[in-house]
Amino acid sequence: MLKIFGMEMIRILLPLLLFIISTKISFSQTDKISDYISVADTITKTALRDRKGYDWLKELCEIGPRLSGSENSMKAILWAKNKMTELGFDSVWLQPVMVPHWERGNKEFCAIYNDKIMIKKLEVLALGGSVSTPENGIEANVIEIKSFDELKQKASEVKGKIVFFNRPIDQGMTNTFAGYGSAVDQRVYGAIEAAKYGAIGVVIRSVTTKFDNVPHAGVMLYVDSLPRIPAAAIGYLDSDFLSEQLKLNPGLVLKLRMNCRTLEDTQSFNVIGEIRGKEFSEEIVVVGGHFDSWDVGCGAHDDGAGCIQSIEVLDLFKRLNIKPKRTIRCVLFINEENGSRGGIEYGKLAASSSEKHIAAIEADRGAFTPVGFNVDSDSITINKISTWLPILEKASIEWVKKGGSGVDVSKIKNAKALLGFVPDDQRYMDVHHSANDVFEEVHPREFELGAAAITVMVYLLSEEGL
């Protein structure tokens, strides 16, 4: 009778016990989320009110452009190392990286002529890595080309001419990075393709969304099996002008003069600083951007902003006395623009280390209003990170979805997840790789919201793991 009574009591009380346990777990989880939201709110308000990172970006931009191998690049590297040390990070060090050293030289000259009479000087920039022209420049008829397929079709007309690649960004695309991708092959591979058919030089329409006349630089490539011909970008409006003039007079002559040069590889460094985790110090969350920039403007959006936001992530932890469970490491990668050697060297370090890289975030899309995070990982991990949206929303993050991360962090092959911070992209290609990319183009609230968004994501990765 007692045994039967005992079993009956268990049958009656078990659902109640399970309800109490589940309720306790639910309340505990709710409290945890509430705590996270509170921390995210504090991080965001602190970043917006203090504006420390924005002031540091101004200091960095005052050094000037930071092309790999340049004197300014080394000045910036030492500045960043000193800044991290001043801020009291647990460890700060330089990782040696050998980088290419290309110099633009004197201002380029480009003009179009009709019967030796100059019609117009064009705004022009040598593309990064280009060879120079002879001292007196090159002079030849111009052939306008919209695609590599068209180039192949007109192969017999190309020899001895300067090829004008004139395919603009598709302004109909809502994603400007996709638009950039639809046009940038002309810049990267144009000299290779034109050289196949005997061209003596290449000019391209600047890869930009802005209807101005500021030319945009960027890397271009050669192959050893073909002649290396000079390559340059001309302003958007000048590209329109040249195209219209060629319709009126296909026999126009273009003269191009550049004295850029490639020197021997030189010693440079990644700048690394970290705050050690209090529980899982061997598990690493990386946050960073690329510290080099092109040699026009001062690389404010590309990628000074992402680098300074990454420094501010660690500083916000210290400012708010947040002790991370996992080690937070800021890496400023050198040489992304014309070689990615900083990312490659750090990837080697990550592969050979006993540390476990659980996640790496790259900020290399400008300092505009934050909207989301791309995540390169398995679906379970992406789903887990997506559940943090109610917390990330405190810093204006609207979505988390599968997508690419960034050139440098992609070299960390053993990380559980690679993330790309995504701000609004509508104005980024206006400034990208050009003299437009200056500190004055960065809005303090957009910049600090970005710093806060990345900090909240790093905080959650540190607390929750993957």
TrEMBL record:
GO terms for cellular component: extracellular region; lysosome. The keyword Protease applies. It comes from Ignavibacterium album (strain DSM 19864 / JCM 16511 / NBRC 101810 / Mat9-16). It is found in: Endoplasmic reticulum; Golgi apparatus; Lysosome; Secreted. The keyword Signal applies. This is Carboxypeptidase Q. Keywords: Aminopeptidase, Carboxypeptidase, Endoplasmic reticulum, Glycoprotein, Golgi apparatus, Hydrolase, Lysosome, Metal-binding, Metalloprotease, Protease, Secreted, Signal, Zinc, Zymogen. Homodimer. The monomeric form is inactive while the homodimer is active. InterPro entries: CPQ, Peptidase_M28. GO terms for biological process: proteolysis. Pfam families: Peptidase_M28. GO terms for molecular function: aminopeptidase activity; carboxypeptidase activity; metal ion binding; metallodipeptidase activity. SUPFAM superfamilies: Zn-dependent exopeptidases. Residues 270-369 form the Peptidase M28 domain.
